[in-house]
Amino acid sequence: MAVSATAKVASHRWIALTGLCAAAGLVWLAFADLGVSLPTISTELAIGVTDLQWTINAFSLACGALVLAAGRCSDLYGRRRVLLVGVAMFGGFSLLTAFLSGLAGLVAGRALMGVGAAMILPATLALIPPMFPKEEQPKAFGAWMAVAWVGQAAGPAVGGSLTSALGWRSLFWIAAPLSAAAFLVILRFTPESRDENASGGVDVIGLLASAAAAFCLLYAFTEGQTTGFADPLIIGLLVAAVVLGVAFVLVERRVREPLVDLRLFRARDFDGALTANLVMNIVFAGMSFLLALYLETVRGYSALEAGLLLFPSTLTILAFNPVGSRMAARLGSRTPVAWGLVLLGLGTVLAGLVSTDSPYWLLLVGLLVLGAGLGLLSVPVSNTAVAGPPPELAGTASGLFKMSSMLGGAIGVALCAAVAKGIGSGQARKDALAAGLTEDDIDKLSNALSGSDAAAAVLGQLPQGERQAVMAAYHDAYAAGVAGSVKIAGVLALVAVVVVLWLWPRRR
């Protein structure tokens, strides 16, 4: 007697999920594992760390710009098919990049890995609803989210360990066999699904407009941290992003087979989920970025040590993931999302109480509380955003969901860094003037904590006692800037509770 397709899917769905989670986990690991290895790569290849930063930026830009288009393509051409192409690209170009030595090759290789990542993320999410019955979907989404959080949190530790043991190239070549294993599991056990009602091809104009708008916005927020947001190029990119975004909406309203079906946004729970996800990523990315710099620059820890000190938030994320799922099943997704944002806000404000000599336990409490909040809201948000819309739009919904994550991360780092710099610079300038330094010296000391040559020259002219006093003042100012910015991020999460509750209708 032949086994039905439904029975086959039911018997293999958890094995298939391991392949989906493995593919997604490799992507999230790639987002976070390379940063700690940049100094080693810089020394070996004689390339500046600032230039090498583009190996990280290229991956994020390519993935963020194309994730929405990749989600729609998965609806049209098959989510499993697009996922397999993405895994093959990610693993193949990762292996190729392991043998490259020039800056251009490394940046290009990481960018092409980012294209593969853009195909992987929405497809892995969109394949969950058709494989799992509704009552099991929260568990499946919970597994996916757990892998994502662990991948991001463990990235620095994994990157540092592999670089120390096997060299930095191991970060690239080790992804190839892991990608191959995920590819085989997906190929063998994952059923195909697509939008069976789609009759046209890809909305090329919409695809180009959305990709260009996302690229301009992400590039502006990434590069603006270095050049300043008053730079004409950054202003031009932000204006271009707005113009392209408006053009995209106008195009989508007129074409028969749009890249994004704008009817998705008529569902207020979908809007609430996207808003919560955007704010969650703004707050968490900005907070993590600043606290890592604080631990390294002010407290003197290595990048690997800083990553380990921030890791406890991941433990409470994992612990509260199932709690959020159970609350959603009993009370609806709106409740755990709202409480999750409250805990995220309170925990982030607590983490913002750091100073140059604050005890670690104070930061630890904040990390544990905000991690609990992230755990509560992560699964209900993803379940609502991906499984809530019509099944034929699962890929598009997943693409929008992951694009909000990418944009939130970029915006969070840029805005939190800008606020921290504004607060810290004001205090540092005041202390430096009180110490008798000139305005010219203060300008040169703006990068005192990063060890710039100009700052070192000014410090070298000062007597030992004054030099220590100035550096202490800059440490105090830096810590104050980080603390102020992190607290503001926490307040943003608390304000978002009101917005999300207004958008998200009560469960009836």
UniProtKB/TrEMBL annotation:
This is MFS transporter. Keywords: Cell membrane, Membrane, Transmembrane, Transmembrane helix, Transport. It comes from the Bacteria. It is found in: Cell membrane. GO terms for cellular component: plasma membrane. It is a multi-pass membrane protein. Residues 16-508 form the Major facilitator superfamily (MFS) profile domain. The keyword tRNA processing does not apply. GO terms for molecular function: transmembrane transporter activity. It holds the Pfam family MFS_1. The chain crosses the membrane at residues 12-32, 52-70, 82-101, 107-128, 140-159, 171-190, 202-221, 233-251, 272-295, 301-324, 336-354, 360-379, 400-420, 477-504.
